[in-house]
Amino acid sequence: MKKKRRRSKAQRFAALDELNQGGGNDEEILTAISDEAILFHTPSRESFASVPVGKHRENWPVQSKEFALWLTKRFFDERHRAPNPALLRETLYQIDARAQFGAREEEVFLRVAGDARKISVDLCDPQWRLIEVSRRGWKIVARPTVRFRRAPGMLPLPSPSPRGSIEELRPFLNLRPACPPADDWYLLIAWLTAALRPRGPYPILILGGEQGTGKSTTARLLRALIDPNTVPLRRPTRDERDLMIAAGNSWLVSMDNLSRIGTRFSDSLCALSTGGGFSTRKLFSDADEALFSAQRPVLLNGIDDLAERGDLLDRSLLVSLPRVAERKRLAEETLWRRFEKAYPAIFSGVLETLSRALGELSRVRLRTLPRMADFARWGVACERALGWPEGTFLAAYERNLRAANDQAIEASSLGPVIVEYVASQPRSRWVGTSGELLEGLLQHAGRRAGGDRHWPRSPQQLGQLLRRLGVNLRRGGFEIRYWRQGKQSTRMVSIRKVG
To answer: Does the pTM of the predicted model rise above 0.85?
Structure first.
């Protein structure tokens, strides 16, 4: 089907004047006004309209309140009254159909867009400007061609200073003075800049520490440099559907004051970090399916040892914050007043780091690939961009991964007992059946096993738990082998400490 050629701005205004002077009816006026919008639909078949507002254009879903208000305002400009509600609804359905079947398909982005060479960041200001970042630098674009959408609660990023440094962020962060020195700083800067890249996988940043360590404040500061929001930190969501909806309305998913991450929620966070989808029935429908798909950076804060599942810890950065000394404690108002003053320069430094790291990334080659290998390469690119000593990022990341692996073992009911039991055996090696292993572990654990509802109650349950924990035990220096032997094909297991 041949597409109708879009009329020029002068032609559209002339048509409206002709309708007004010739007594055109309300339906004709609304249709003529709708021609000012550029219609399109997304790959997920949501209809959008790009509408002129002053000297810029805004992108809104056709069925949104914002687009209906724009149409109403334009009608009022022409007729000095509001359109009939029934006629407005009918016009919106017509526009929806035109966007679906008579307009091109375009992708719409939230806060961040782009590819490996060029990144676009929505400033979310009233002029709908964006920042374009490439290896050559960054610039503000007043008339963007990239389509961004705005979700409720989104706040503007600052207009960056011409010059700034990411080092200006350091005084606002409460980091351990030696862990070894600068480890947490390297990891946080790599995570912060990676969160502004349009594609992951993204490591999940988990801020831990006791009360009085500034976890929530640190989380809000980091969010302000990525995706400011009227609700910067949210309470944990109830289920996977709520998590995906949150991801659909926010680039950075951040949650505050968690005390525990359950199995289902842990799996959902892993899917969000690496890119996952979820489907459910639409409300009031047994046939239609609502699809959610997203890949997002995630920021959590809570008590130490918040995450327990190995697969979640494998995708996480663990940063434990120290308690703020009384002499260094600032009132919230004072801290935020100082941050607001430095905000444009710090954001400029983030953009400059992002640009330089993009230039370095193609030259980064790793001899061995750790978990979250894409993030590891990005961290090395940041290291080179900022002139950190060679090898410091990977060393910091490896230490963090080992700590996460140890935490996964310690958080398991079975892990510490296996480590102790195997270490107590001759040559730190145990061989036998799953039943014999369970009996030996029970004797070694004693009372610890009796009151633990997660303790395996059968050889089959032990086998399942051991396979789940096997990846972390191997990384912790244990060799685990399974085989069958004898005429009865008896299942055997061997666990040996090798490092």
So the answer is: yes
